[in-house]
Predict the structure of Trimethylamine methyltransferase family protein.
Amino acid sequence: MDSVNATSIEKMIADFEVIRLVKAALTPFEVNEETLCLDDIKEQAHTGGFVACDYTLDYFMDLYMPHIGGRDAKTKSPTYYEDSIQEEIERLMDEFENNRPELDADTKARVRTVLLKSGLPADILDRIEAM
């Protein structure tokens, strides 16, 4: 981070989402008779109605679900994307609180200096340190 001139937590959260999406897209999946569910294919092939198959319903939750933004195109809030980023920041702050690393005072001071120099607002750093 010390090599950049500015830091945006919102941009970092968006970058994390892109990384999660790429990892999900590149995760290999197993292909065999069971995962293909050939019986359902044979049974439904004439109608193409695979959505109602038990197999489809069992594995429906394997779809990628973003942490920010969303799949609801009918959202009424013009700030939905920004609001979801703030919710993700809150989730990550809670996760940090529950898994806080142990750092000595010198390390904390050096990290703070780099983050302030990079443009991270002092109030966010104060909030993190107060946790």
